[in-house]
TrEMBL record:
InterPro entries: Dis3_CSD2 (IPR041505), NA-bd_OB-fold (IPR012340), RNR_Ribonuclease (IPR050180). The lineage of its organism: Eukaryota, Metazoa, Chordata, Craniata, Vertebrata. GO terms for molecular function: 3'-5'-RNA exonuclease activity; metal ion binding; poly(U) RNA binding. It comes from Quiscalus mexicanus. One of its GO terms (cellular component) is P-body. This is DI3L2 exonuclease.
Amino acid sequence: PDVIIEAQFDDNDAEHGQDHLQDMLTDDIKKLSLDTGEKGKAAGVTGVHRTKQDDGPKVNDPRLLPDEFLQRTAKVVYILEKKHSRAATGFIKLLADRNSELFKRCAMFSPVDHRVPRVYVPLADCPPDFVSKPEAYSQTLFICRIVDWKEDSNFASGQLCKSLGQAGEIEPESEGILTEYGVDFSDFSPEVLECLPQNLPWVISPGELAKRRDLR
């Protein structure tokens, strides 16, 4: 820390002039410098030994360090099973760099679910007037399916499957969620419909009511 010296002088000091005051200050500073230097050397000798003890082991081979000094790291080497449907709901927009070759071939798909990466989709999959009027589709939900993700790319590659409709409406939002989670919501086949009662109106028989718990 800086050392601040306050000098006091009276009329006698003033008679000797400013030179006398400067000489006094110089002598005081020299004494302080010598005192702090000697103390610093003494503290340095003991401080070195204490610091080496507190720092812990310093070795070049990490295998020799205790576990509490190590940070475990790993990397994904193989995908055993693809649990995600690779489908996502989101919006499409033009790429920012209009002068790039990629701008002429692809659009950017931004998923609503931020756990899914952004995806390059071919312009051929987009609506015909998307390039000329991209703002018209700023609130339109699309379904995109990821088909590839190269190791050297920040974005995946995919294909637009269909347009769901306006964002915020119940039917497009519901269809998007069902598609993302791989739920089959297509119409039942004729074979399944034939299992239902054909004689309408149909009512539950008294025998069925007697052996069932009524939750109506």
